[in-house]
Each structure stands twice: as structure tokens, then as C-alpha cells.
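Good morning N.,

You mentioned wanting to compare the apo and holo forms, so I went ahead and generated the holo version with adenosine-5'-diphosphate. This is what I fed in:
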Amino acid sequence: MNHSNSRRAFLRRAAAVVLAAALLLAGCAAAEEPAPQQNSAVGFYFDTVITLSAYCDQELLDEALARCEYYENTLSKTVEGSDVWNINHAGGQPVTVSDDTIALLETALRASELSDGAFDVTIAPVTALWDFTSGEAVLPDDADIQAALPLVDYTQIKVEGNTVTLPAGMMIDLGGIAKGYIADELAAFLREKGVTSADLNLGGNVITIGRKPDGTAWRIGVQNPHGSRDESILILNLVDATVVTSGNYERYFELDGVRYHHILDPETGYPVSNGLASVSIITQSSMYADALSTACYVLGLEEGMALIEELEDVEAIFITEDLEVHYSSGVVVNDSIN
Ligand code: ADP
Ligand code: MG
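and this is what came out, ligand included:
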């Protein structure tokens, strides 16, 4: 059953959306001491701009940003010697990897099961055939795609403790989930250091800590899929929550009037084409949100929304190509907040 409310959103109208009270009220601590000033740190990792903004010392933010290098060197499929590189080049042999990689694989497998394989971390043999980054519009050879498809099967991954075994020829790609994990880890690091107010943006993966020092929620825009990067179609009020968006406008090329984008259907090996422009997931775990945003994009509006309605404390906003906005039942639209 689909409990979604549908509302047409217009380009110039920023609908304010308030999350379910449970999400909003979590962790609303009032600061007694005068808050430190807001600082930010900007870097480029995982092929995306990372902007960390928090009410804390600059040094602490710089330290948080520097941790991205460790994650890049551990989780990138192109960095030789990374956990992912080692798994992908093991030729069927078991590989021992970090706790980070195990945590990611466990959530990836859970998302695969929940979505019946719409999210599949073993999509790498197919993603390797597509090039969405060079700017050149080149279609892969269909025969290569057909040959790669039998190598996409998450049920073949074996995880025992910190050991991962993959049949020879299979490969993993954490691109659909890693930024969410790193967002969670950076937020946890800042929290441990006493930060109570922050807004971390990892290329569209946003996680917030607490409220702004004035007690208001963080206002986070969801991008208009047809607009520029800084043009929001609606605004979310977030307190200790994350919003992660998967869209067909992030990485793509166009050929003969067709847009080929980077979210691929594990069944066909081709970009998903189901009328969706983006899916945003709102919940507490950014890693889970990241996997679910990719999964729901592949599942499409009906099946994706049905999955979200089954999950506790997870909300979603689906935006179609014609800019219809569909909210899951726990998203409260509050038009009085602007
Ligand atoms: P973004 O990287 O823009 O945040 P996503 O989270 O949706 O967007 O991730 C897209 C990436 O996930 C792709 O670049 C690719 O590495 C990987 N991917 C593509 N299709 C799938 C899929 N069906 N299942 C799992 N991962 C995928
Ligand atoms: Mg994702």
C-alpha cells in the first residue's frame, strides 16, 4: 500500500518540510555557555566537494576534514592497496579488511536484501564499463554489459569477522554508500569532541548535529533536479538527522537526446529510467540513507515508497522528472515556515 501524499511543487515555491516530531525532538539540548563561532572547512575528496561547518574551533574542523584522506585510501576502488582494491584484486582469495569496510558491507548487504537487489554493491563490473566523469559521451559495448551482468550478485559475498571473500572476477563498488558512512563517522568524531551544533555536507549527503545555537533547526535544501546546484525545491528542518539524495543530475552524459546517468539497474546494466529525477532519504544514519536513496531510485516511486513506509524512522521525498514531489507519510509539510 502506498501512503504517500503527492503535491505538485512549483519552482519558485520553497515548501518547508518538518520531519516527524520524533526526529525533530531528538537531542535538542540547550547550550548554557555562549556558543563558539561558526567555522567551516572545505576539501575535495571522493570526487566531491566536502563542506564541514560547525560551531567549534577551526582546528577541530580541519582535523575532521583530514580524516577524509584515510577514508579515501581505505574505500576507494581506484587507490591501489585500499580495502576495496584488495577485495577486487584477490582472485577469489579471502582478504582481511578494516572495521570500516565491514560496517559498510554489512549495511550494503542489508540494503540489497531490503530492495531485493535493486541496490547491489557488486555492481562494479558494470560501473567499470561506464564513464560518467570524463565528459565524453561514449556508450559501453552492449556485449560487454551482458558479459558483466552475471558477475553482479550480492549473495555471493562472504563476510566472516573482518574477512571478505568474493568469487574471482566479481568486484565491489561502495560509491552508493560510502559518503554516507563517512558523514556518520565525521559527525561521531565531532560529537565525541563535544560539538553540539554542526552541518556537514559531503557532496549532497548532509548530516546535522543538534540545532543552531539560536535553538532553531538546521535548514537544509533539497536540490531542484532541473535547477543549479544551489537552487532548492524545498527546505527541510533537521535536528540530529541526515538527508541524502540520489539524482539523475549528479553524474551523466547525454547522447542523441538521451541522458545516461550513474545510477544503474543491476538487472540490465543500464541507467535506471523510471521517471524519477531524485530520491531523498531522511533518517538518522547517513550510511543507511545513502544506500536507501540509491535503492529507492532504482526501485522507482511505487516500490520505493512502499519500502520506505515499511521502515521505522525513515522518511523519503521522491521527485519525478516533471517535478512532482511525493512525500512519505511521516514527512510533515509546514508551509508557514519559510
Ligand atoms: P552520489 O554518488 O551522487 O551520491 P548515489 O549515492 O546514488 O549518488 O551513488 C551512485 C553510485 O553508486 C554510482 O556512481 C555507483 O558507484 C554506485 N551505483 C550505481 N548503481 C548502483 C546500484 N544499483 N547499487 C549499488 N550501487 C550503485
Ligand atoms: Mg547512495
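The CA atoms of residues 257 and 278 lie 19 Å apart.

Happy to go through it together on a call whenever suits you.

Best,
F.
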